[in-house]
Fold each of these.
Amino acid sequence: MNDLHIGPASAADLSDVLDFWKSAAEGTSISDDPAGVERLHRRDPDALLLARRGGELVGTVIAGFDGWRCHLYRLAVHPGYRRQGIATALLAAAEERFAGLGGRRGDAMVLDRNASAHRAWDAAGYRPQEEWTRWVKAIDGPTR
Ligand SMILES: CC(C)(COP(=O)(O)OP(=O)(O)OC[C@H]1O[C@@H](n2cnc3c(N)ncnc32)[C@H](O)[C@@H]1OP(=O)(O)O)[C@@H](O)C(=O)NCCC(=O)NCCS
């Protein structure tokens, strides 16, 4: 893992990241389009962390801190590079960012049926909170 480099995405990386998510991420996020990812990058340029190996994009995570909570989104590793500790390294980098910002607890939404993700989050020390349910309302139209 010595050649793994993790750092914030640049504006020039964003379209590659959207392509990467099509093959590496689970499902599609409500903000998964150029406008969504550019807005994130303008608002918090260091939130989108990329893992590269030999220059190739092999993993992503969004480590978003809004001053209150630390949310993790879009943890995804290239299918050809899984089980090599890349998600573990991305989560460590995200947690380092949160700690530097004064964040107190990281959280992530994980699909109930995504068993391999459960194992990865569990291995990184995250635990489900069964007593909570996500309540949502779309800001700009019908609830998605
Ligand atoms: C989930 C995901 C990010 C894990 O990435 P990864 O780089 O392979 O994870 P790591 O190599 O850091 O795994 C760390 C530990 O997690 C556990 N783990 C990860 N994937 C696992 C799997 N498929 N089955 C069993 N355990 C798994 C293992 O304990 C592993 O340690 P080990 O390899 O020494 O046994 C990757 O499978 C992925 O991108 N999946 C599709 C997108 C996705 O579901 N993202 C999560 C959204 S919430």
Amino acid sequence: MSTQQQQPVLSLRNLTRVHGSGATEVHALRGIDLDVHPGELVAVMGPSGSGKSTLLTIAGGLDNPTSGQVFVEGTDITALGVNGLAALRRRSIGYVFQDYNLIPALTAAENVALPRELDGISARKARTEALAALAEMDLGQLADRFPDEMSGGQQQRVAIARALVGDRRLVLADEPTGALDSETGESVLALLRSRCDAGAAGIMVTHEPRFAAWADRVVFLRDGAVVDQTLRSDADSLLTGRAAQR
Ligand SMILES: Nc1ncnc2c1ncn2[C@@H]1O[C@H](COP(=O)(O)OP(=O)(O)OP(=O)(O)O)[C@@H](O)[C@H]1O
Ligand SMILES: [Mg+2]
């Protein structure tokens, strides 16, 4: 079945975000419409300051739009209360921050287990899941280290494990490969890709065409607006001379 026939996991409707007011007003997003379906991985590219992180934080319920709507699995999250939003974020949304945002006082395993424990599963089960997610990121040996005892790339992989633990339906990743060497970056992308192939919807911000090539679709932002979209199948057919298969 075509993914287009299913309800999108994420729908952004005429989203705007203005930071500040008066002379310092910045129009970070100007009327964004975007749907991401189950199984889809979308790459967002664009110059520094074009609104990529703003788009992701609003899609993840971490910031509010100035106008417009954000639907996650059909629920308008801008209309949810604080508790409802927090619960939806823990259950449905995995978020990889541009600067990792690990909790310094918790070990790698505790950081990864935290969202699951907050969601009410037993500490023991949460730890088992956390260790499995860390092992997937090749970090099994570092489970009991604190963030300041790990390299930047290792912290980034812990942050990715935390976003993927517990089968979230929507995975949002802001430059998830920023601190990684290219081989580790590719393995992170392969993991994101397999999560989407299993039915999740994903958006990742990246500056690297090599990593964007893992996505089904690339969305280009400039000055807060979508200026171009490319299907991977379009690019493939240009390269191979064959008609798009999708
Ligand atoms: N809290 C804020 N207050 C005021 N302006 C902000 C705030 N956050 C972002 N902006 C502005 O909004 C615009 C978009 O910022 P955003 O962080 O979304 O860009 P970006 O595409 O993620 O850039 P980068 O590639 O450098 O991470 C920029 O002009 C930025 O200065
Ligand atoms: Mg950014």
